[in-house]
């Protein structure tokens, strides 16, 4: 593998430093930026166009799944590798559906990260052994065959952003500032989120987001 440019996205500075050291010990590999929240991850990915973005799932302002979705849509040449503490099938499925090329557990990152990044950069998939046995294709087919609708899939990209920020406790004005939209527009999105998810109030939004892994 020749020169490789990598973006790191994780809200823990110490972990980012450790990952940087592991990655930059490989000749020709460079970490071009570190981002502490999902919105900065997307911004840096679009601006820097790294070869690979290594992203945590649980990040503030915009979670890693939604950040992956936006990067894949807006910068398709950037390959995304998800780094997570969660081995649950639901998290893996969400990451794959968002467009991630690989999924590595944090507990095994030291041993697997270099192989994972190299594989993803080459356009191949990579999964930690602990999650590789999950039957991703069977799960997708089963859900499709049974006609099960995931209400979260009904939300627009903006509504997903608003959902996370509401769950993180931001007011409508604060959300408006983060997303550069008006408070009235935020309220409209909040209403749509409640309707589409069949939720009644902010408390239920927080519970939904926590169960979904959107917030930790």
Structural write-up:
There is one protein chain. By secondary structure, the protein is α/β, with parallel strands linked by helices. The protein has 2 domains: 137 residues, Rossmann fold; 62 residues, Winged helix-like DNA-binding domain superfamily/Winged helix DNA-binding domain (Arc Repressor Mutant, subunit A). 54% of the residues lie in helices and 14% in strands. It has 11 helices and 6 strands. Strands 2-1-3-4-5-6 form a 6-stranded parallel sheet, sandwiched between helices. Helix 2 packs parallel to helix 3, helix 3 runs parallel beside helix 4 and helix 9 packs across helix 10. The termini are far apart.
User: What's the number of helices?
Assistant: 11
Class computed from helices, strands and strand pairing = alpha/beta
Order of helices and strands: EHEHEHEHEHEHHHHHH
Superfamily at the CATH H level of the largest domain? Response regulator
Proportion in β-strands: 5-15%
Strand count, sense and closure of the main sheet?
6 strands, parallel
Rg over alpha carbons: 17 Å
Helical percentage: 40-55%
By CATH reckoning, the class of the largest domain would read Alpha Beta
By DSSP, the count of extended strands is 6
Give the low-pLDDT segments.
none
Distance between the termini: 35 Å
The CATH architecture term of the largest domain is 3-Layer(aba) Sandwich
CATH names the topology of the largest domain as: Rossmann fold
Number of domains: 2
| Order of adjacent strands in the largest pleated sheet | 2-1-3-4-5-6
| Overall geometry | globular
The averaged pLDDT comes out at 89
């Amino acid at each position: 593998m020749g020169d490789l440019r990598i973006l790191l996205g994780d809200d823990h500075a110490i972990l980012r430093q450790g990952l940087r050291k592991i990655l930059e010990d490989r000749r020709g590999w460079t970490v071009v930026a570190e981002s502490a929240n999902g919105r900065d991850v997307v911004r840096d990915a679009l601006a820097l166009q790294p070869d690979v973005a290594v992203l945590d799932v649980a990040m503030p302002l915009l979670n890693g799944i939604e950040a992956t979705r936006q990067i894949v849509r807006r910068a398709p040449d950037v390959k995304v590798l998800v780094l997570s503490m969660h081995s649950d099938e639901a998290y893996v499925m969400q990451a794959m559906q968002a467009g991630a090329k690989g999924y590595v557990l944090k507990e095994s990152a030291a041993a697997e990260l270099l192989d994972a990044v190299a594989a993803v950069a080459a356009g191949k998939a990579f999964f930690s052994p602990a999650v590789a046995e999950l039957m991703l294709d069977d799960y997708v087919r089963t859900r499709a065959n049974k006609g099960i609708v995931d209400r979260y899939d009904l939300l627009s990209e903006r509504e997903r952003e608003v959902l996370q920020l509401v769950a993180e406790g931001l007011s409508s004005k604060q959300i408006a500032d983060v997303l550069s939209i008006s408070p009235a527009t935020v309220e409209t999105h909040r209403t749509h989120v409640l309707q589409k998810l069949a939720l009644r109030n902010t408390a239920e939004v927080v519970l939904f987001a926590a169960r979904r892994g959107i917030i930790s």
